[in-house]
Amino acid sequence: MSSLNERADRAGHAASAGTGTGGAAEAVADLDRLILLGIADDLRRRTRLNGAGAHEPGAVADDLEAARRHRWIAGHWLAALHEAGLVSRDPAGRYHDLRAPRRAELAAARARMEAARMALGYPPELAEMMLRSLRLLPGLLRDEIGVQALLYPDGEPATADAVYRDNVISRYLNAAAAEVVREAAGRATAPLRILELGAGIGATTADLLPVLAARPVEFYLFTDLSPFFLDTARRRFEAGFLRYALLDIAHDLPDQPGELDLVVAATMAHNAPHVGRMLDQVAALLAPGGRVLLVETVREHPQSLTSMPFALSPREGDGPPERHDGRAGTTRTYLRREEWLGALERSGLRVEVDLPRREDPLTALSQRLLVATR
């Protein structure tokens, strides 16, 4: 791997120093277990799985009074519970023998959650969101409560920052990404042209803009599907080269072939219906030597099961988000690391940065920085 990979890794670890990550795998497992037990307890109390017989996921969704667009989530949860050994599944895909947690087991899992949070350097807001999501499951499933109520309780951004910025893996990845941008700015012979896709709350943007402050930048186009995030960014950031635009990556990207020096997509590229097609479009936007910078989750951890699926449910229909790549026909949200590497290569993009390193304890958190060059 390139020397850029090494410099980005050092920058990431410098930004996340002070948090011991040696027990990261165990801490992640504890947080995952808490959510799985919480879901199992909710299904015990509110569905026919508390009795005898084997049942289709659709029947469980009926018991949960799930809104039409969220009905697929019941089957997604059951598959995760089955993988964790908390429910059995017969050859016909029906579920039975739910192993509901005892009260003492739930209490012990909540107690371990605090230790796990501290071990991972997570702020209290992140753990509070996890517990709040379990309490709000009925309203979330009925679509009476939106996922923004989890990320912005009382309209405050602290929880969203905890999820996307103020935690050890985000500090590492954002600092490593900033080092990549610093290197790109240092070798540029003309003002940079940058596009950020699905920028959201600007969690990664906030680390990239200071690197660019003293550099020649023609424009930094901050895009998102939601006007809410564009308005938030206008209030938060002051760089004169920033521009803003609504953009849905499920449709065509901007028509600027061969003009961009950098395309940033942090924790959002998996939302594309076909990742390969999206990367082909991104590659076409890049000037020779231009880069795409991805921050991506490469495994769905159970701790996100009570939040992320509700954000992904399509506005219409009763199935999972539409996918036309290797996830087609499944409820998978994320691509694995190997799938991303293959997709980048097939789009004519050479991977220069792939972090964290395989032996790094941070790999337990299953988020990565991937940077590739046209």
Automatic annotation (TrEMBL):
- Check the record and name the InterPro entries matching this protein: Methyltransf_12, Methyltransf_Superfamily, SAM-dependent_MTases_sf
Note the PANTHER family from the entry: METHYLTRANSFERASE
For this protein, the Enzyme Commission number is 2.1.1.-
Residue stretches of biased makeup (Low complexity) = 13-22
- Give yes or no: UniProt keyword RNA-binding: no
Keyword annotations: Methyltransferase, Transferase
The annotated regions of Basic and acidic residues compositional bias extend over 1-12, 315-327
- Which protein, by its recorded name, is this? Class I SAM-dependent methyltransferase
Q: Name one GO molecular function term.
A: methyltransferase activity
* Domain Methyltransferase type residues, every copy: 195-292
Q: Where is this region: Disordered?
A: 1-22, 308-331
UniProt xrefs under Pfam families:
Methyltransf_12 (PF08242)
Instruction: Share an example GO biological-process annotation for this protein.
Output: methylation
**Keyword Methyltransferase found:** yes
